[in-house]
Amino acid sequence: MIPVRSILRVRADSSSSFWVVGTTTTCAPGLYRTTDAGRTWVAAGSTMNAWHRLPVAASGAQPTALHAPAGDVPLSCATGVGLVQVAGITLTDAVVLCTDGSIFRTTNGGVTWQQRTAVPSGGALTAVSSESLWVASLQPVAGCSGMSVLRSTDGGATWRPTGCVAGAATSGAVGLSFVNDSVGMLWDGTGVWTTGNGGSTWVRVRG
Question: How far is the C-alpha of 198 from the C-alpha of 102, rounded, in Å?
């Protein structure tokens, strides 16, 4: 089990090696890694060079900034709209998904943002490159008894469904990450699924 209270970001390096940024019992962000598909986890150092969401304050107030490698930067989401996920591509290039489904990209470390095509009910976002992105959607889809996954190959300008993660919860926290255009993983708080064909089919490996 991941030794954190909440997940701020998930990234996969292979079909069995992932790392997560999550909050500790003191609500401080920490980095943890697994090399056996989530069976065991070890602390992996500072989150200094990682893009990730900031923890919710003890008062319950939602953050108005996110963590970037060069320091915290203001959210690009509209006023009153929260951040679902940030996917770092490089130290200066990243994409964010907001709670209203809007998507923004920066290429200068969060100084400015450009809006992309929204994905309603987006629960998680990941990026392999500036053009290759995926979103896990919590919106019910006919024929999918779980979570649907959509992909963009043009940097978020257009999206198409790729597959269904059967059995995955369609509420609560979600983590999604792809190693490349084929291998990826999804975490829904109850288990871990992996794909080796770009999200067309998914296999539950933990939970």
Answer: 23
| 57: its two tokens | 């304050």
Instruction: Give me the numbers of helices (H) and strands (E) for the chain, helices first please.
Output: 0, 19
The predicted model scores a pTM of: 0.79
Asked if 128 contacts 181 with a C-beta cutoff of 8 angstroms, the reply is yes
Tokens 């296999």, residue?
203
Tens digits of residue pLDDT in 57-109:
666 677 889 989 888 999 999 988 988 889 989 999 999 999 999 999 999 99
| Cβ atoms 129, 89 nearer than 8 A | yes
Q: How many residues does the chain have?
A: 207
User: What gap in Å lies between CA 6 and CA 63, rounded to an integer?
Assistant: 15
DSSP states of 135-191 as a string? EEE-S-BTTBSEEEEEEESSTTSS-EEEEEEET--SSS--EEEESSSS-EEEE-SS-
- b or e along 148-163 (b: 16 or more beta carbons within 10 Å of the residue's beta carbon)? bbbbbeebbeebeebb
Instruction: Decide: 137 and 123 in contact? Cβ < 8 Å.
Output: yes
